[in-house]
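Standup, Tuesday
Yesterday: got the pipeline producing C-alpha cells again.
Today: sanity-check two examples.
Blockers: none.

Example 1:
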Amino acid sequence: MDKNEAKKRIEELSVLLDKYTYQYYVLDAPEVSDYEFDMLMQELKQLENENPEFIRPESPTQRVGGIASGKFEKVPHAVQMASLQDVFSYGQVEDFITRCRNELGECEFSVEPKIDGLSVSLEYENGTLTRASTRGDGFTGENVTSNIKTIRTIPLRLDGAPEFLEVRGEVYMPVSSFIELTDQQELLGETPFKNPRNAAAGSLRQKDPGVTSKRKLDIFIFNVQQVAGESFKTHTDSLDRLKKLGFKTIPSYKKCHDFSEIKAEIERIGNERSGFGFDIDGVVIKVNDLSQRDIMGATAKTPKWAVAYKYPPEEKETKLLDIEVNVGRTGAITPVAVFEPILLAGTSVSRAVLHNQDFIDEKDIRIGDTIVVRKAGEIIPEVLRSAAHSEGSSKFRLPDKCPVCGTGSVRYEGESVLRCPNVQCPAQLLKNMIYFASKNAMNIEGLGESNMKLLVDSGLVSSPADLYSLKKEQLISLERFGDKSAENLIAAISSSKNAGLDRLVCALGIRNIGQSSAQLLCRKFGSIDGILSASLKEISSIEGFGEVMAESVYSALREPHRVELIERLRTAGVNMEYSGSENGDNRFEGLTFVLTGTLPTMKRDEAKKLIESYGGKVSSSVSKKTSFVVAGEDAGSKLVKANELGIPVLTEQELVERTK
C-alpha cells in the first residue's frame, strides 16, 4: 500500500470507528460486533505505526495518551464557569419564577437533572478537540485533555462543526462503575471512595491517563459556553444542535412554562432518579431564551437566570437489630449494622458499615436503638446517628478476639481499625487467595472469586502455593469443571510462574504495597532474595517509599508464614528473579528519564514502556536527579529547564539507539 492509499484508508477507518464508538457508547445501539470493531482498530493502529506522519491528535487510537504529568497546567476560562444558586423548597422555586417574570414578562424555562459530578470545559477548533479543563474556581481550571480523551462518549472530532466551539459538561462515574471500583478497592485493602462524585473527581485528576481510562467515566454535555459562526435562540435549541454534532447531552431536558409544570417535572425526576444509572443531586431550572438571559445578567458568583433545586436528603428511622462483625483480607475487623429494612432512594436497604469502634463510640450506637439512616450520594447506606436508645441497652464493644478464628485482635499504632493478626484465619484465606490470582497480581485467567471459593471450600487449596500442585483430575471432580476448563486453568496457573517478580511481590498481599511499589522494590534489589535480605534503611531509601511502606515490607517478609510461602512458591518453580523485560536487560537501571514534546514515531506511553522495560524510570518533571530528557517537537518548559541544568537531551532515535 503506497502513502496515498494508506492516508485514505486511515481516514476511512477513523470515520468508521468514530461512528461505531458513538453508536456503542452514546446511543447504546452498536451496529457491529466487538470483534469487528477490534479488528478495524488493529488495522488503524498498524497503518499509523507504519505511517506515523498521518497520525492525528483526534485519531481513535489516541484515546489514552500521555504520561504521568505530576501537575496540571492552569487554564484561564474565557467564559466564566459559574456555579448556580441553590434553592431547597418549592416556595423558593416559585420566588425565582416570579422574579424572572417581573423582569422579563412572559418567559419559558428549561428543566433538567443536575448531575452530581465534576464540571469541565471542552474546546473544539475546526471540529477537533484541542483542550479540556476543569472548572476550578470558575475563572481558572486545570488542563486535563489527556485524561478527558479516555472518556469514550466524548467525540475527538466533530463533523460539520463551527470554526470554534466550547461546551460545558459534567463528568461522572456511572453507578455500576462506582460499585465495581469500590469492590476492588475493598479487596485490595484500600479506602474506597465515599460516593460517585468523589470517585469521578479523583479519577479525572489522575496523573496517569491509563488509570483514568480504567475508571470508566462518562459525561453529559449541558451548555454551550461560546461558539463562532453559529447562533442559537434558546438553550434547548443549542442542546438539540449539540446532540446532532455527536455529543451525549443532558438527558430529558424539558421546556416548561409555569410553576405547576416545573414542580411536576421536579417530582417526576425525583421519583425516577433511583432508576438512573448515574447520581443526581437536584434539578436545574433555567430561562430558556438566551437573549432574556442577557437581560437578567449575573452576580459576581451566579447567573440570575438559573437556580438549582436540591432534593432534601432522604433520611429514615429504623430499628438496629444487630451489629455483625466481619473480617477482611488484611485482617480488618469491621462492624456492620443490621437493621429492619427501609426504602431509601428507591431500593430496600438493611445493612450499613459502621467503620470502627471510634465511629460507634462517637455516635453511641447500641443494639436495639432507633437509628437514622440515609444513602451517601444516593448509593451507599450510612448510619447518621442514634435517635433513641432502647430500654436497658448497653454500649457496644468490638470483640477482643477475632470472631472467626479466636485470635486476639490488635489495634496497630496510627490505625483506627482492629485487626486479626492470624494470617491463617479462614476469613482472610479466601480473600487473600482471590487477590493472589487477580489481574493486579499473578493474573491467573479463569481463577476468579467463584472458582477460587470452590477450590478453597473443597479443601484442595489452603495456600497460594497449593495452586501449583493442582492436577486436572482433581479439578474435574468438582462441579462446573470439565476436561477443557480444567486443562485451561492448569495451563493458566503454570503460565503464571513466569508472571514476573513484581507481580509476585504484589500478590504476597503486603499492606500498602501495590503494583507500582512492588516494581520499585524489584528494580532496587533485583530478586526475592535481594528484597528479603534488604535492611529497613535500604528499603526506606527507595524514592517514593515512606517509612510506613518500608516498615510494611520489612516486617511482612519476616513473618514465618510469608517466608514459608515464598519458599514453597520457589520450589514450585515460580520466578524469583526480576528482569524488567523478557530479555533481562536492565541497562537503564538507576536512570531517570523525562519525556517532552511530540515524538516522531512513538507515543509517550510506548516510549515510557520502552524505558521501563530496560529498568529505567520515567518522571514527570525535570530536576537535578534527571538523567536524560527525551524531546520531540513542540518541547516546552521541560526542555528549557533541562538546558539550564545541563541535563543531556536525547532525540527519539538516540533513545532507541541506546537500547541496541
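Example 2:
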Amino acid sequence: MSSNYLSIGLLAMLLGSCKQEDDQAVALADLQAQMEEMQKGNEYSPLVEEPLEKEEKEEESELPKISESEFSDLKIENKVLRGSVDRSTETLKKSESKIEELEKTLEDLQKEFEEYRKKYILKIRAKAEGTKLATLKIPSGKIYKDVVISEVTELRIKLRHAGGAVSLNVDTAPSEWVKKYALVSKESLVPEPFTSRNADGSEKAEMAAADAIAIITGDKGVGTGFFVEGKGGYYLYTAAHVLSGNKQLEVTTSDGRKFKSFGRLEIAEGEDLVRLAIGVVPKHALELPLSGQVQDGVGITAFGNSGGGVVNQAEGTVNGIGDSSFEVTAEIIQGNSGGAIVERDTSVALGVVTHAIAARTDVWAQSTRFTKVRRFAARLDRPIEWKTTTVFDFLKEPKAIEEIDRVTRLIFTLSMLQPSGSGLRLNTLVGEGVTAMDIFRENSNMRAVQDLLKMNEELRERKIGLSKADLKKQYSSYYRDILSGSKAQSYRFQNLTMSSFHKKRSQESLMWRAKAEKALAARVVSMR
C-alpha cells in the first residue's frame, strides 16, 4: 500500500509543477501585450512636432512615457521569459510522459490488489466451511442451534442446524457475515424485475422459481424441466422418461428462448433422472439442496406444465422419504413429469417429479392414504452418480428397443397361427384389439413377411395348391429363416451399450425375445 501512496504523491507534485508553469505562460502573455501597447505609444512620440487638435493632444498626454533604455530592458526581459517558457514547455512534456507512466503503474497496482482481494475472500470463504456455532441469530430474529457452515459462495451461506438445513443470502444473513464473506445479491448478477408482496419474500421466491421452469416438447409428448446452478455451471434437470422415446426435442424457457440442439447429457445411475449441461445463463436458476435437506412434513411447491405450454404450481408437503425418492401430497398431473419440487418460500430444488402410483382398491388399503393416487419425486439431496453420454445416443436406445420388440411380436404371432391349405388366418386376435394382420403390417419391410403374405394370398385365392406335407415344409422353411434372423438381431442388440435408465427395459426385451423364439421353434417342430 505504501507504493500506492508514493505514486499518488508524486502525481500531485507534478500536477502542481504544471500549474506554476501555466501561470508563468499567462504572465508572459500579459507582458507581451503591455509591450505591444507601449510600442504603439512610441510610434506616436513627439520626435517631430505636428499640429494636433486639442482633444488628440489631451489623449496623447495620457499615454505612458518610456525611455529607450527602459524599452531595451523590456526586450531583454521578454527574451529571458521566452527562454523560460520554452524550458517550461519541455519540462511539461516530460512531466506528462511521467504522469502517464505513473497512471499505468497505479492501474497495474489496483489490478494486483483486486486479484489479491479475490484470493483472500475465497480463502476466507473456504476457511469458514466446517465452522461450528452453538447458536446463530439472523436479522429476522430467528435463532438456529448447533449450526455448522457447510458452504460459502458469493451468493449464499449454507448451514446445517439442529432442525435441518438453511441457505442464507445477502438479505437474510447477519450483516457482519455479508461484509466478511463479501456476499452479493442475485439481482446484481442476473437482474430480476420482481417485487415482493410478503415481508418474508415468499411471493418473490415463488415467482423466481417459476422463471426457472422450462417446457420440454417432443413428438411423443410434453414434459417439464428446470434450471439449476451447480458447481460445474448451469444445468437443465428433468426426468429421464420425458426425453426417452422422442425423436425430436425442443426446450422453451420462461422468457421464450428455444433450444433444439444439445450437447452433454448426464444420467443418474439407476434413476429416472437426467441433466443437460447448458452454455447460457438462464433467467433464473434454482439452488441444489444440502445433503439430507428433504424432511418429512416440509412445505413444498410442485412446478410443472399440465398442458397448453403454461407453467403451473401445486402446494403440498413431503409425505414420506425413501433412499432415492420421496412422496408429496401436491396434486401432480400428467405433464408435470420432470418438474421441480421446491422447498416453499425458497429457491431450493429438493427433487424432480418422476412418477405416480394408481390408487389401491383392495380391502387392506381402505381408510389409508393408499386409496388415493400417490406421487413421487427423485431426491436431489443425496450423492448422485452421473454417467455422461449425448442426447443423440440416449434417444437411439429406445428406438433399438422398439425395433427388437416389434420383431418379437411377429415371432409370437407366427407361433400362435396354425397353417392350413387356405393359408394363415390373419384376422386372428393375438392381443387386445390387435390382429395377426396388424402385426404383419408393422413388419412389412421384412422380406420373409412379404413372402409369407404373397404365399398366403395365393393359397387363399387357390392360385397354388400344396399337399399337407409340402405346406408344412414350406412354412417351416420361412419360420426357420425368421428364427435365424431373430438370433442375429438378438446378438447385435445384446452387445449394445445401454444407459442405466434403459438397461432394465432392454433386458426385459431380450427375455421376451427368448420366449418368442422358443414358442416359434416349438411350432416348427410340431409341423414335422
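Quick observation on example 2: Residues 1-8, 41-52, 190-203, 359-371 have pLDDT under 50 and may be disordered. The chain has twelve helices and 21 strands.
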